[in-house]
Amino acid sequence: MSVDTPPAPAQGRAVPVLDRLRIPRNTLFWCLHAAGWAGYACVQFLGSLLHDKEPGYQQVIFAAAISGFIVTMPLRYIYRVLWRKSPHTILIGIAITSYVTALAWRVCVNLAYDRFMPQMEWKMVHWYEYLGGAIQGTYLMLCWSGLYFGIKYYESLQQQREATLRSATLAQEAQLRMLRYQLNPHFLFNTLNAISTLILDNQNRIANQAVTRLSDFLRYTLDQDPMKKVTVRQELDALNMYLSTEQLRFNDRLRIEFAFEEAALEALVPSLLLQPLIENAVKYAVSPRESGGTIRVEGRVRGAMLELSVADDGPGAKTTNALIDGRGVGLRNTRERLHVLYGDTHRFAALNAHPGVRIEIALPFEKASRP
User: Fold this and answer.
1) Residue 225 carries which DSSP code?
2) Are 60 and 116 in contact (CB under 8 A)?
3) How far apart are CA 154 and CA 343, in angstroms?
4) What are the extents of the domains in the chain?
5) Which residues are CB-neighbours of 350 under 8 A, at least 6 positions away?
6) 23 pLDDT exceeds 80?
7) pLDDT-above-70 percentage for the chain
8) Where are the beta strands (DSSP E) in the chain?
9) What's 203-364's CATH class?
């Protein structure tokens, strides 16, 4: 029978933010602000060429772009205050601010007409005539305001998304650390029980060796960063440290076989991935039987996947639930770690192999970079 893990929900993975490539907000504003009014001037200039405008019109366009650049600068600081207000207040504030800014801009534009196009048939006599065209100018200011709030809203969404991804990453790391550190007390409890049994049987020399090897293994687990991946070769070295302790307990009753392709040895895996699987096999397949048992560990690369397996020749499990749930922390811990790390890009299966149990893992193949 086979027990495959259900597809894990896609895990949120934070996309690295390339801060060095990100334009500072202040620089971005001034670049867009200048580019917008430069674009306005270019469009108006091309229009003057197409419609054969009178002499001096190009100077008016230049004056309109410069004055527009200047009078709209304060809008940024006004809208910063409005941004924290209610939507209703923001809309009213934008309308009023756009109209007032358009009035100031049209005064500058109309003065430019007086200065650069004296040949115009109509002349401005009264002061209020310099405010003419404010309605058309308001549309332009509303466009400026819409772009400003649109970009600011988009930036706010991006910041919220990055904060969400950052929070998900921190939660994921905390979960991984918890799962990884959970292995130490679980392994320590089992090993200390075994050492206690050796002492009760007056096998003090073997018990002393077991304590020494246990301390070496625990030192290794504590020195390892739980978030760091190791090569399969390093994982097997750590596994041998653990097995040397178990060999003191079982001697010839515990038989281990390794079958790894060379390419698989350079693949990256989460640290202490195989140890809890071996520990379960020792507990359920070797320890209960007087004759002991054999555990076979295999690794190979198939396409873009690294395939690992741990098989024993023990009695196996009677039911599907007993296979996963009945084997304690080891299998559940490994399955949860893989869910958190790889989402639905991995496979974890527990097979009742008759005889024994076979655990199969398939992970995306990641090759260790050489120093």
Assistant:
1) -
2) yes
3) 29
4) 19-165, 203-364
5) 2, 3, 323, 324, 331, 357, 358, 359, 360
6) no
7) 76
8) 2-4, 229-231, 254-260, 268-270, 293-302, 305-312, 347-352, 357-364
9) alpha beta
